[in-house]
Structures are given as C-alpha cells and as structure tokens.
Hints:
The protein is of the alpha+beta class. Helix content is 20%, strand content 48%.
Amino acid sequence: xxxxxxxxxxxxxxxxxxxxxxxxxxxxxxxxxxxxxxxxxxxxxxxxxxxxxxxxxxxxxxxxxxxxxxxxxxxxxxxxxxxxxxxxxxxxxxxxxxxxxxxxxxxxxxxxxxxxxxxxxxxxxxxxxxxxxxxxxxxxxxxxxxxxxxxxxxxxxxxxxxxxxxxxxxxxxxxxxxxxxxxxxxxxxxxxxxxxxxxxxxxxxxxxxxxxxxxxxxxxxxxxxxxxxxxxxxxxxxxxxxxxxxxxxxx
Length: 251
C-alpha cells in the first residue's frame, strides 16, 4: 500500500510539473483557437475601430477622439482629433507617413525607417507570432512569469527587422494580455510595454477594447478605450498612401 501511494504521489508530482509545459507552436495554436480560429481571423479583411485616446504625464493629460483602420497586406491608418485638428499616422505596406498639426506640421511627412518599424508591426492584423515562419520571424517559448498573481505564458518573437517582442498570454483563456517590445531607435534600445484587455467578439474574433502603453516598469502614458469596432468595412487604398505633392521626411 505504501509503495502504491508513493508511486501515485510521484506520478502526480511529474504531471504537475509538465501540465503547463508547452512548445511555442502549441501556445500559438491555443491563441488562435481562443481568438476564434484561423478561418474566422483570415475572414476579416479590414477593421475599423473608434474611441478615445488619453495621453498623460508630468502634471498634464489630454484626451483625443481617434479612428484606426487596418487592412490586409500591411495597411494602417490612425486619426486623432482635438479642437478641430486631426493628426494622421499611416502606412501602406512600404511607406510610413504622418501629419502632425499639434506640432505645427500640417503637411504630410514621410517617417524615418526606425519609426516605420513600429507601424509595420502594428499593421499586422493577426499578430507577429501568427504565421511567423512565412513572415520571416522566429519564436521561442520562455515558460511562465507571474503577472499580478497570474502565471502568464511567455513567447519570444524575434522579428525579421532585428527587434524583439515578448508576448504574455493568459493561462486560462490564451489571449495576449501584455506585449513588451524591445526596439532600436536611432541606435538606442527602447523598451515599450502594452497591456491588453476587455476583449469583445467582432465577427467571430476576439479584439481587445482596452489598450495601455508606456515604458516598461513605469506608469502607462497612453490609454486607449475602443467604443466601436467594425470588421470588413470598405477602405480605399488611397487612405494609406502618401499624398501626392511635396515629400518631407520626419526626424
């Protein structure tokens, strides 16, 4: 009897040690299933969201209304409006550009290569870890890490542009809850943390409606609350293309 109990305890201990062990591909598969499945994800060809964007820091805060549009093949456009002025950031899959009237720049400017890297990642509708091989990225499972009492699964994504993303997945629902981006900007390493939550179902796919962004291990300086989301809306490619005329390059 004692030997049987001892064997049972060993088996239980071994099972507990391996129950949550996953490969990178297994974790990605669980994330795809949690979102709604690859078929439903790929069926969304475009997504338009709207809501509020709050910037805060060092004794000030400002809230803007925003609209963000993404379209398959790496297209992205975000508009943020305040007091009759609208800032635009856009990417057509190759060229990133912006209009920044809040800083006195009312003409469209092409963005630097370092800044375009962030737009390229943001324009990926599925997430950089989905179909990572076809995109030229590499992934590695890093085990789990405590996040406010939750043992979140960690996935490292080595982007083909040289930057690194660490994606944290909820251990129960397998949706991403935090992304830490490690980027090189003008030769300096920058680490940015994005928290995701309040997922809602849009055309059969779960989309985060709450997004908070800021430096790692510091208060979040940007908070986005989505109030409306529409899938498969008609978006003209001209929305994402740099306007014809005088070309400038932003610093």
